[in-house]
Automatic annotation (TrEMBL):
This is Dephospho-CoA kinase. PROSITE patterns: DPCK. PANTHER family: BIFUNCTIONAL COENZYME A SYNTHASE-RELATED, DEPHOSPHO-COA KINASE-RELATED. It is an enzyme of class 2 (transferase). Belongs to the CoaE family. ATP binds at A10, S11, G12, K13, S14, T15. Catalyzes the phosphorylation of the 3'-hydroxyl group of dephosphocoenzyme A to form coenzyme A. Its EC number is 2.7.1.24. InterPro entries: Depp_CoAkinase, P-loop_NTPase. Its main location: cytoplasm. SUPFAM superfamilies: P-loop containing nucleoside triphosphate hydrolases (SSF52540). It is found in: Cytoplasm. Keywords: ATP-binding, Coenzyme A biosynthesis, Cytoplasm, Kinase, Nucleotide-binding, Transferase.
């Protein structure tokens, strides 16, 4: 079973992800995979250079994300080209990590990604968890986390799909608007709920006589 995990920027998705890991659930981190597939020597990096030019590299040959961002920030076609290069490789690595976890006996995994709803990937998963907080909390957390102004923070928030649209397709919601302990208790409860469903599925399977 693959469970999607998403949320808005600074809503606390990483906090929830880390607690699931602490409970023993394998977490497939899309951001981590996205960084791995563009490391020096990877085919995706060569394709990015071919598409956007050598100026998207640092002197040491690593990807200059700031320079790449300048190419794609306000250009939907450029973002689409980048996605066509990276998304299939990210999906391939996600599938590999999921298969490895299942082979090692884990009955379910978490797929942690920011754009699960935007790209429709959530439809392929068994369930979707959305981490939510109030707009006021989100704004204050983002400003504090990234050391940016209110105007800059609002621009980043408004560049994403509204959180309410993600909540509309959620199977489970984690309220991260209160204390860390409150959030962890919700994750503990959700862990038990999902685990119980998996056990019920297993016991419902027909056996050979």
């Amino acid at each position: 079973m693959i469970i999607g995990l998403t949320g808005g920027i600074a809503s606390g998705k990483s906090t929830v992800s880390r607690h699931f890991e602490a409970l023993g659930v394998p977490v497939i981190d899309a951001d981590r995979i996205a960084r791995q597939v563009v490391e020096p020597g990877q085919p995706a990096l060569a394709d990015i250079v071919e598409a956007f030019g050598a100026n998207v590299l640092h002197e040491d040959g690593t990807l200059n994300r700031t320079a790449l961002g300048a190419h794609i920030f306000q250009d939907p076609d450029a973002r689409a080209r980048l996605g066509a290069i990276t998304h299939p490789r990210i999906a391939q690595e996600m599938a590999r990590q999921s298969a490895a976890a299942f082979e090692h006996g884990h009955p379910w995994v978490i797929y942690d990604a920011a754009l699960i709803v935007e790209n429709g990937l959530y439809k392929a998963f068994d369930s979707l968890i959305v981490v939510a907080c109030s707009p006021e909390t989100q704004l204050q957390r983002l400003m504090a986390r990234d050391g940016i102004s209110e105007k800059q923070a609002l621009a980043r928030i408004h560049s994403q799909m509204p959180l309410r649209e993600k909540l509309e397709v959620a199977d489970f919601v984690i309220d991260n608007d209160q204390s860390l302990d409150h959030t962890r208790r919700q994750v503990d409860d959700l862990f038990e709920t999902i685990d119980a469903r998996i056990r019920q599925r297993g016991s419902a399977r027909p056996t050979d006589d």
